[in-house]
Design brief:
The complex is a heterodimer. Chain A is of the alpha/beta class. Chain A has 11 helices and 8 strands. In chain A, strands 4-3-2-1-8-7-6-5 form an 8-stranded parallel β-sheet. In chain A, strand 7, helix 9 (about 195-205) and strand 8 form a beta-alpha-beta unit. By secondary structure, chain B is α/β, with parallel strands linked by helices. Chain B is about 45% helix and about 20% strand. In chain B, helix 9 (about 195-215) packs across helix 10 (about 230-240) and helix 13 crosses helix 14 (about 345-355). The interface of A and B includes residues 52, 86, 117 and 120 of A. The structure holds pyridoxal-5'-phosphate (PLP). Pyridoxal-5'-phosphate (PLP) binds near residues 83, 228 and 232 of chain B.
């Protein structure tokens, strides 16, 4: 599974739509659309500054999701996911978010909602699958806890740190274990930059997602397209 | 599901998955150590011989006359490093030592928690990095220098509003990257479980002491008042009195200059429940669920969130949360200085101001105010306003 993360509504609505549709048109398997939140604690400088800029310009959840819907109508095969922080989904309403967007989303990725807190949002009506995280420091019981996930994939954070960091975590068998236990593809995120990184991730556990390197190029459509094309 | 993480419906662990093993490790050590006689006596000795406990309860006669009530001050301003913060940092540094970690990080607003962390780190021979928003670093420059003197690295945070919230974001990011050898000494009763419970435990010494001291003076207070930023000094003193229903308890938030967006830090007064820095609690937010800009003259209260324990105490009605404006805090600052010869922190001035501004409510009553810190660090802000 090959995927890209882009910041919703950034740098403006038109440019975001172009980037969103470009990823889908290239035939990649999934896209992660970020709904900007003012406190991006899991993000490094590149994504955090894009998010801050988007927040300053005003975040319109409905507009971002309308653009995702339009893209899905054109490219029904791509799996769309939303990546946003817990306060955005809770504020919007877990149930309302599911009712409004459940039909176009394959999952939500919430970096400040660890596996043990999933129930908190599910109880409040979140019915879209929550994509679970596995990390280099996950213990056996942490991985065991995601065994029955309904999500289309598991997200492996390969580094210790925020998006865009290059502090590699311990190399161990955590992602393979997650793949074995869940039977789902494990997508490596955080710290994938080059074609080689991506190929390695695909070979190891079946997928990758790239964030920082594409967000860097979200303002320059030509270089955005050129960058993603190498992963075709 | 996991009730232990919550105060009523507030609290939880809203953090990246990467931190979960470290939070479990911390929970394990905290639960073990708080019942460990050796740990408790080590901490107690430090608090007494190094940090200056017990702090006195002082009857402010002159101010009392002025206000028409009996005002008693719990003198946390006399603690080593100038505020209640050191109760917590000594406790957490000791936990860090037992956990076998050799580096601590912290966020700071007023700089008091940063100084108290740097102090504990110096004492224990630990590496220390403190994150401070650029705006706060400028308004509390002497504290930046103190931290550096004590051997800490100070990172001036340039994101967002460049205040306490942004310093906390930066500290959380750093913790995710270094969690294997680093403990994050959080400065208030905020953050993911077990931090709110653990920090409240280390600050409970204020209330336990004050309760005994009042009894020795022959009374129970009618009212207890404390300022609330994240809420650690407040929960510290409240814990001595929460189970006595005769004691009325007040938390005072920073009203800034007005109730307009961005001009106050009234988390409970103007916010609604949301998720920030690991916990579900009241939060000042925009209609689009972004965390709102806040303002207070006092860097330690300039924070859009609040500890989950206070959200629960508000909803249950046990504690009344009010506010005072910047000017009222300044007025209280001036009054205590001139009438009693005590220069209070601008944070603590909010608690005093609440009593001064609500004279009728407190008339004739015995009011215990937590004087959480001293005002040396606030000289720049005071001079800016032309008070001297
Ligand atoms: C003297 C003093 N009082 C109060 C506070 C506010 O924090 P809390 O609400 O956790 O006591 C601070 C924070 O910096 C402080 O320095």
């Amino acid at each position: 599974m090959r995927g890209f993360y882009i910041v919703g509504g950034y740098p403006d609505r038109e440019q975001f739509k172009k980037c969103l549709n470009a990823v889908a048109a290239e035939g990649f398997e999934f896209i992660e659309v970020g709904i900007p939140f003012s406190e991006p604690v899991a993000d490094g400088p590149v994504i955090a500054s894009a998010i801050h800029e988007a927040v300053m310009n005003g975040v319109d959840i409905e507009a971002i999701m309308a653009d995702v819907r339009e893209m899905k109508q054109k490219y029904p095969a791509i799996k769309a996911t939303v990546m946003t922080y817990a306060n955005i989904i809770h504020g919007y309403g877990e149930k309302r978010f599911s009712d409004d967007f459940g039909d176009i989303l394959s999952g939500v990725i919430i970096p400040d909602l660890p596996t043990r807190m999933h129930y908190w949002m599910i109880e409040k009506g979140l019915s879209i699958p929550i994509i679970p995280f596995v990390t280099p420091v996950s213990r056996d019981e942490d991985i065991e806890a995601v065994k029955d996930t309904k999500a289309p994939f598991v997200y492996y954070i390969s580094i210790m740190g925020v998006t865009g960091s290059d502090k590699k975590g311990a190399v161990n068998n955590r992602s393979e274990t997650a793949k074995k236990l869940t039977g789902k593809p494990v997508v490596t995120g955080f710290g994938i930059r080059t074609k080689e990184d991506a190929d390695r991730a695909i070979a190891a556990t079946g997928g990758f997602v790239i964030g920082t390197e594409v967000v860097k190029r979200q303002k320059d459509f030509d270089s955005f397209c050129k960058y993603i094309a190498q992963f075709r | 599901m996991d009730k232990k993480m919550f105060f009523g419906e507030y609290g939880g662990q809203f953090v990246p998955e990467t931190l979960i093993p470290a939070l479990d490790e911390l929970e394990y050590w905290y639960n073990k150590l708080k019942n460990d006689d050796k740990f408790k006596s080590e901490l107690d000795t430090l608090l007494r011989s190094y940090a200056g406990r017990p702090t006195p309860v002082y009857k402010a006669e002159n101010l009392s006359k002025e206000c028409g009530c009996e005002i008693y001050l719990k003198r946390e301003d006399l603690m080593h490093t100038g505020a209640h913060k050191v109760n917590n940092t000594l406790g957490q540094a000791l936990v860090t030592k037992y956990m076998g970690k050799n580096r601590v990080i912290a966020e700071t607003g007023a700089g008091q928690h940063g100084v108290a962390t740097a102090t504990a780190a110096a004492l224990f021979g630990m590496e220390c990095t403190v994150f401070m928003g650029e705006v706060d670093a400028r308004r509390q420059e002497p504290n930046v220098k103190r931290m550096q003197l004590l051997g800490a690295e100070v990172v001036r945070v340039q994101d967002g509003q460049r205040t306490l919230k942004d310093a906390t974001n930066a500290a959380l990011r750093e913790w995710v990257a270094s969690v294997e050898n680093t403990h994050y000494i959080i400065g208030s009763i905020v953050g993911p479980y077990p931090f709110p419970e653990m920090v409240a435990y280390f600050q409970s010494v204020i209330g336990i002491e004050a309760n005994t001291q009042c009894k020795e003076l022959g009374f129970d207070p009618d009212c207890v008042v404390a300022c609330v930023g994240g809420g650690s000094n407040a929960i510290g003193i409240f814990q001595g009195f929460l189970d006595n229903p005769k004691v009325e308890i007040f938390g005072v938030e920073a009203g800034g200059v007005s109730d307009k967006d961005g001009e106050h830090a009234r988390t409970i007064g103007m916010g609604k429940p949301g998720i920030l820095h690991g916990a579900f609690s009241y939060l000042v937010q925009t209609p689009q669920f972004q965390v709102a800009d806040v303002h207070s003259i006092s860097a330690g209260l300039d924070y859009p969130g609040i500890g989950p324990a206070h959200s629960a105490l508000n909803d249950s009605g046990r504690v009344t949360y009010g506010y005072v404006r910047d000017d009222e805090a300044l007025n209280a600052f001036r009054m205590l200085t001139r009438k009693e010869g005590i220069i209070p922190a601008l944070e603590s001035s909010h608690a005093l101001a609440y009593v001064i501004e609500n004279k009728d409510r407190f008339k004739g009553r015995k009011v215990l105010v937590n004087l959480s810190g001293r005002g040396d660090k606030d000289m720049a802000a005071i001079m800016e306003r032309g008070l001297v």
